[in-house]
C-alpha cells in the first residue's frame, strides 16, 4: 500500500505491499458490487479479483459467468477505483477483458504448466497493461514457474508478480494444497527482484485455516496476499468453504503480527554468538555426512564385487524406523526426519549407482 496509516479506522497495512482480494467467481452484479465496495472501504486492498472463466477439473460444474460478468467488474472498478484483475487462459479472454477496461490478469496454476499458452498470452497482453500475477504450476516444478515468469518478462511486461497458491499433493490434508514453502523461498533466492504474494485461500481450502497460512506467509517475508473474499461464502457457487467474508477478511488484516523484516535493522550483534554456534554445528553435520558417504562408497564397492544391487529395502526400512524414533527422542519433527532420511538415502543410491556407471537414479 502506498499510504501508511489511513484515517477513519481503516487498516494500517503498510507492511503488506500488495493485497489482492475478491470472490472466487463473479456470480451476479449485486455480489460483485457489494463485495467490491466492502473491500474498498477497508482501505487495505490494492486489486479486486474475481474469476470470470473458471477452469474446472471436470465438466458440468460452475464454469463462471464468462464475458457477461465483465461489465459488472468494469462497473466495480469504476465505482470503487480498485483495479480489477481476472484470470485469463486464452487470447480471447485477454481481448474481452481489455474491451471492458480490465487490464490486470492472473495466470492460473493449470495455464502456468503450459509453456505454449504462457508464451501466447505474454504476447497477447500489451506490455503497457497492469500487473500480471503468475500462479505457481500445480506441481512443485520451480523451473516451470520461473519459465512462465520469464516469458512475461521477456515479452516486455514490467510488473510480473508470482502467486504462491500451494501444490497438489495427495497428503495435503487438512489443507487443500501443500504449501511446500521451500519452493517459493527458492524462487525468492533465484529471482531476488520479484514480488511474491501468497494465496492462503487455495492452500488452506477452509476459511478458518486461511489466517494461519497468511500469517506464515508474512512471517516468511512474502510481499503480499491474494485472498478469496465473498459477501456470503455459504452461498458461493465455487470455493464456498475457503472464502472469507469482507468482515472476517478485515479482522484478519487487523490481527496480523508484523515482524521486522530481515535486513531492515542490523540484528548482527545480538545474533553473532548464536549464528557462530550454528556455523560450527553445520560444519560438523557436513563432515559427518562426508564420512558417512565414504562408508557408503565402501559398501558400494563390496556390492559391486559381489553383484549385489545398491538398494537394500530391508536395511533402509530398519534405518528409517530407527531414525524416526531417535529423532522424536531428540525433539525433531517426524516429517523433517523422514525427508532428511530420504534425501541422504537417495544420495547414497546415486553415489553407489555412479560407481557402477548407472546414469539414472530415481528417488526411492
Ligand atoms: O547398507 C547398505 O546396504 C547401504 O548401501 C547403505 C544404505 C544407506 O545409505 O544407509 C544405502 C542404500 C541401501 O538401500 C541401504 C542403506
From TrEMBL:
The keyword Transferase applies. Its EC number is 5.4.99.5. GO terms for molecular function: chorismate mutase activity; transferase activity. Keywords: Transferase. Residues 265-356 form the Chorismate mutase domain. Pfam families: CM_2, DAHP_synth_1. GO terms for biological process: chorismate metabolic process. InterPro entries: Aldolase_TIM, Chorismate_II_sf, Class-I_DAHP_synthase, CM_dom_sf, CM_II_prokaryot, DAHP1/KDSA. It comes from the Bacteria. PANTHER family: PHOSPHO-2-DEHYDRO-3-DEOXYHEPTONATE ALDOLASE, PROTEIN AROA(G). This is chorismate mutase. It comes from Candidatus [Bacteroides] periocalifornicus. The lineage of its organism: Bacteria, Pseudomonadati, Bacteroidota.
Amino acid at each position: 500500500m502506498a499510504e501508511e496509516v489511513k484515517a477513519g479506522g481503516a487498516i494500517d497495512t503498510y507492511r503488506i505491499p500488495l493485497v489482492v482480494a475478491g470472490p472466487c467467481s463473479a456470480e451476479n452484479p449485486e455480489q460483485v458490487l457489494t463485495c467490491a465496495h466492502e473491500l474498498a472501504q477497508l482501505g487495505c486492498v490494492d486489486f479486486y479479483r474475481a474469476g470470470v472463466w473458471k477452469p474446472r477439473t471436470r465438466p458440468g460444474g460452475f464454469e463462471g459467468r464468462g464475458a457477461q460478468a465483465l461489465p459488472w467488474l468494469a462497473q466495480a472498478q469504476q465505482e470503487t477505483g480498485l483495479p480489477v484483475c481476472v484470470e485469463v487462459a486464452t487470447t480471447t479472454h485477454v481481448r474481452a477483458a481489455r474491451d471492458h477496461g480490465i487490464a490486470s490478469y492472473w495466470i492460473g496454476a493449470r495455464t502456468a504448466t503450459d509453456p505454449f499458452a504462457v508464451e501466447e498470452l505474454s504476447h497477447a497482453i500489451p506490455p503497457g497493461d497492469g500487473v500480471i500475477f503468475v500462479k505457481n504450476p500445480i506441481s512443485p516444478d520451480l523451473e516451470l514457474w520461473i519459465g512462465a515468469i520469464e516469458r512475461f518478462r521477456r515479452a516486455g511486461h514490467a510488473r510480473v508478480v508470482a502467486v504462491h497458491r500451494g501444490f497438489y499433493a495427495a497428503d495435503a490434508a487438512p489443507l487443500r494444497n501443500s504449501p511446500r514453502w521451500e519452493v517459493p523461498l527458492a524462487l525468492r533466492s533465484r529471482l531476488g527482484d520479484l514480488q511474491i504474494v501468497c494465496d492462503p485461500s487455495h492452500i488452506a481450502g477452509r476459511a478458518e485455516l486461511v489466517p494461519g497460512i497468511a500469517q506464515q506467509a508474512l512471517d516468511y517475508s512474502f510481499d503480499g496476499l491474494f485472498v478469496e473474499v465473498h459477501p456470503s461464502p455459504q452461498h458461493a457457487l465455487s470455493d464456498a468453504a475457503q472464502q472469507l467474508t469482507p468482515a472476517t477478511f478485515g479482522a484478519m488484516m487487523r490481527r496480523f503480527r508484523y515482524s521486522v523484516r530481515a535486513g531492515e535493522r542490523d540484528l548482527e550483534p545480538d545474533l553473532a554468538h548464536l549464528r557462530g554456534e550454528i556455523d560450527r554445528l553445520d560444519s560438523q553435520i557436513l563432515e559427518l555426512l562426508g564420512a558417512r558417504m565414504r562408508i557408503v562408497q565402501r559398501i558400494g564397492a563390496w556390492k559391486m564385487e559381489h553383484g549385489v544391487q545398491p538398494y537394500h529395502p530391508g536395511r533402509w526400512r530398519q534405518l528409517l524406523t530407527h531414525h524416526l524414533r531417535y529423532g522424536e527422542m531428540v525433539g525433531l519433527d517426524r516429517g523433517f526426519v523422514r525427508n532428511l532420511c530420504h534425501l541422504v538415502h537417495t544420495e547414497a543410491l546415486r553415489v553407489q549407482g555412479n560407481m557402477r556407471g548407472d546414469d539414472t537414479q530415481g528417488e526411492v
